[in-house]
Amino acid sequence: MSQSSMDDDELFGEAAEEMRADVEEHLDAARAELPESDAIWDVDADNTLGVLNALRSALDIDDVEAHVRDAKKAFVMGERADAFEDADDLEADLAAVEDVLADLETAREQVGELASTVPELRSALDDAHDGE
Question: Where do the coiled-coil regions begin and end (predicted)?
Fold first, then answer.
Protein backbone atom coordinates (compact mmCIF):
# COMPACT_ATOMS: atom_id res chain seq x y z
CA MET A 1 0.00 0.00 0.00
CA SER A 2 1.36 3.41 -0.82
CA GLN A 3 2.04 5.99 1.85
CA SER A 4 -0.59 8.37 0.46
CA SER A 5 -3.39 5.83 0.96
CA MET A 6 -2.44 5.51 4.63
CA ASP A 7 -2.54 9.24 5.45
CA ASP A 8 -4.13 9.69 8.89
CA ASP A 9 -6.16 12.72 7.89
CA GLU A 10 -7.52 10.96 4.85
CA LEU A 11 -8.40 7.85 6.88
CA PHE A 12 -10.03 10.00 9.54
CA GLY A 13 -12.06 11.78 6.86
CA GLU A 14 -13.24 8.46 5.46
CA ALA A 15 -14.14 7.21 8.92
CA ALA A 16 -16.06 10.42 9.63
CA GLU A 17 -18.02 10.03 6.39
CA GLU A 18 -18.81 6.42 7.26
CA MET A 19 -19.92 7.44 10.75
CA ARG A 20 -22.22 10.14 9.35
CA ALA A 21 -23.63 7.66 6.85
CA ASP A 22 -24.20 5.18 9.69
CA VAL A 23 -26.15 7.77 11.68
CA GLU A 24 -28.20 8.72 8.64
CA GLU A 25 -28.94 5.08 7.77
CA HIS A 26 -30.16 4.31 11.28
CA LEU A 27 -32.29 7.46 11.35
CA ASP A 28 -33.83 6.49 8.01
CA ALA A 29 -34.47 2.97 9.32
CA ALA A 30 -36.03 4.39 12.50
CA ARG A 31 -38.34 6.63 10.47
CA ALA A 32 -39.30 3.67 8.28
CA GLU A 33 -40.30 1.70 11.41
CA LEU A 34 -42.51 4.47 12.78
CA PRO A 35 -46.17 3.53 12.55
CA GLU A 36 -48.14 5.09 9.73
CA SER A 37 -50.60 7.70 10.98
CA ASP A 38 -53.52 5.67 9.59
CA ALA A 39 -52.42 2.68 11.68
CA ILE A 40 -53.16 4.60 14.85
CA TRP A 41 -56.14 6.51 13.51
CA ASP A 42 -58.17 3.88 11.64
CA VAL A 43 -58.98 0.86 13.77
CA ASP A 44 -61.31 -2.01 13.03
CA ALA A 45 -62.67 -3.46 16.27
CA ASP A 46 -65.93 -4.59 17.81
CA ASN A 47 -65.55 -2.88 21.16
CA THR A 48 -63.51 -0.41 23.17
CA LEU A 49 -61.05 -3.03 24.40
CA GLY A 50 -60.49 -4.18 20.83
CA VAL A 51 -59.78 -0.60 19.78
CA LEU A 52 -57.32 -0.14 22.63
CA ASN A 53 -55.53 -3.41 21.91
CA ALA A 54 -55.29 -2.59 18.20
CA LEU A 55 -53.96 0.85 19.04
CA ARG A 56 -51.42 -0.55 21.48
CA SER A 57 -50.20 -2.95 18.78
CA ALA A 58 -49.94 -0.12 16.28
CA LEU A 59 -47.82 1.81 18.78
CA ASP A 60 -45.15 -0.92 18.95
CA ILE A 61 -41.81 0.88 18.93
CA ASP A 62 -39.19 -1.78 19.66
CA ASP A 63 -37.62 -1.56 16.19
CA VAL A 64 -37.71 2.23 16.23
CA GLU A 65 -35.96 2.25 19.60
CA ALA A 66 -33.24 -0.08 18.36
CA HIS A 67 -32.49 2.09 15.33
CA VAL A 68 -32.54 5.31 17.35
CA ARG A 69 -30.15 3.75 19.85
CA ASP A 70 -27.77 2.71 17.07
CA ALA A 71 -27.99 6.15 15.46
CA LYS A 72 -27.31 7.82 18.79
CA LYS A 73 -24.31 5.57 19.50
CA ALA A 74 -22.75 6.43 16.15
CA PHE A 75 -23.57 10.11 16.64
CA VAL A 76 -22.04 10.25 20.12
CA MET A 77 -18.90 8.50 18.92
CA GLY A 78 -18.60 10.93 16.02
CA GLU A 79 -19.17 13.93 18.26
CA ARG A 80 -16.66 12.83 20.86
CA ALA A 81 -14.09 12.12 18.17
CA ASP A 82 -14.89 15.53 16.66
CA ALA A 83 -15.41 13.68 13.40
CA PHE A 84 -18.27 15.78 12.05
CA GLU A 85 -17.53 19.14 10.49
CA ASP A 86 -21.17 20.14 10.85
CA ALA A 87 -23.35 17.87 12.94
CA ASP A 88 -26.22 20.29 13.53
CA ASP A 89 -28.42 18.63 10.91
CA LEU A 90 -27.75 15.15 12.33
CA GLU A 91 -28.42 16.38 15.85
CA ALA A 92 -31.70 18.01 14.78
CA ASP A 93 -32.83 14.89 12.90
CA LEU A 94 -31.95 12.69 15.84
CA ALA A 95 -33.81 14.98 18.26
CA ALA A 96 -36.88 15.03 16.01
CA VAL A 97 -37.05 11.23 15.82
CA GLU A 98 -36.44 10.97 19.58
CA ASP A 99 -39.34 13.40 20.20
CA VAL A 100 -41.71 11.25 18.11
CA LEU A 101 -40.42 8.15 19.89
CA ALA A 102 -41.11 9.75 23.28
CA ASP A 103 -44.64 10.65 22.16
CA LEU A 104 -45.21 7.07 21.01
CA GLU A 105 -43.93 5.71 24.32
CA THR A 106 -46.26 7.99 26.26
CA ALA A 107 -49.24 7.07 24.10
CA ARG A 108 -48.48 3.35 24.42
CA GLU A 109 -48.31 3.62 28.21
CA GLN A 110 -51.58 5.53 28.36
CA VAL A 111 -53.32 3.08 26.04
CA GLY A 112 -51.98 0.20 28.12
CA GLU A 113 -53.40 1.75 31.28
CA LEU A 114 -56.77 2.26 29.62
CA ALA A 115 -56.76 -1.28 28.26
CA SER A 116 -56.40 -2.60 31.80
CA THR A 117 -58.84 -0.10 33.33
CA VAL A 118 -61.75 -0.44 30.90
CA PRO A 119 -62.52 -4.12 31.67
CA GLU A 120 -62.35 -3.39 35.41
CA LEU A 121 -64.66 -0.42 34.94
CA ARG A 122 -67.08 -2.54 32.92
CA SER A 123 -67.17 -5.16 35.69
CA ALA A 124 -67.70 -2.49 38.34
CA LEU A 125 -70.56 -0.97 36.34
CA ASP A 126 -72.14 -4.40 35.78
CA ASP A 127 -71.89 -5.11 39.51
CA ALA A 128 -73.37 -1.73 40.37
CA HIS A 129 -76.33 -2.27 38.05
CA ASP A 130 -76.86 -5.84 39.28
CA GLY A 131 -77.10 -4.53 42.81
CA GLU A 132 -80.00 -2.21 41.98
Answer: 80-107
